[in-house]
Amino acid sequence: MRPARTILLLIKLGLLSCIFQNSFSEVLGQQERTGGNWLAYSEEEKELILSLPSLVAECKGATGQGELELKDWSKEDLVKRLGDLQNKSPRYDYQSLQIAYLLCCLNHEYSLNRQRLVAVFVPSQSNAADGAIEFVESLIKKGDKGLVKTVFEVAPWSDGTLAEAVEDICSDELHVAPATFLDQLRSCRKEVRNGFYKFVRGHQSEESAIDWTEVRTYLKKIPKGHRLAPVAKEFLAAMEQKDNSGGKQ
Question: Of 134, 206, 146, 215, which Cα lies nearest the Cα of 176?
């Protein structure tokens, strides 16, 4: 195709202004992530969409909710623009998950946006769950330990990338805050705990991210009569059961 025709085509697609700031592959990738609706967004919205990855990275580097130090935005302006963009984003789209996470980090309607992340963790939305788990992991590290319950619920049907993320989260929490981890497990319904134990039995290989020797040692040290003793005993018993799916003990 001749250069002049190429330029005219790019103008028609509304992408030329983006190309001057971003690589062509980045723009096309964002088109795909937004479900092919790139032309439906205003120039300001496109600018914000293309800034989402760097904003997410900035959020992950912050130590807690509401502690984000924005370099290029005022909090009020960013919250408003993210809210407007959220209203135009498909519910289970990765872009929508990014926005919900960012709004959590900005401590704006935290419960609502937290629920938007949690809502994707159902087997029918496994692709969205693969994308959301990184945000759940980040919020747990920032102090939202209640999200560990979501990890327990996800564990039995997780596989691939999602299962690896579940292992990583459990490994971190069992090492850093084992009592809190067991408290969250203790407060779950029995069927949720049993589902998590099924995951445990299938992931006790040498390649596991979880230090199962450390876990066993901790569980065995919990004294009888302690509030965590029943769930510790249950956890230990589950670890000793043979995995029918062929998981290595």
Answer: 215
Supply φ then ψ for residue 196, to 5 degrees.
-65, -40
Comparing 29-33, 52-56, 80-84, the range with the smallest average pLDDT is 29-33
| pLDDT for the residue 115 | 97
pLDDT value for 241: 84
Burial pattern 76-91, b for ≥16 Cβ within 10 A else e, equals eebbebbeebbeebee
Report d(CA 111, CA 176) in Å as an integer: 25
Q: How far is CA 155 from CA 36, 96, 110, in A?
A: 32, 23, 24
List, for residues 182-215, the tens digit of each pLDDT value: 999 999 999 999 999 999 999 988 888 999 999 9
In angstroms, rounded to a whole number, what is the distance separating the alpha carbons of residues 24 and 19?
A: 6
Angle in degrees, 0-180, between the axes of helices 94-105 and 126-141, rounded to the nearest 10: 10
Query: Encoding tokens for residue 63?
Result: 């130590």
Token output for 188: 């779950």
- What is the pTM for the complete model shown? 0.81
- Would you tell me how many other CB atoms lie within 10 Å of the CB of residue 112? 11
Tokens for 90, please give them.
Answer: 């498909």
Tally the C-alpha atoms within 13 A of residue 156's C-alpha that lie toward its C-beta.
13
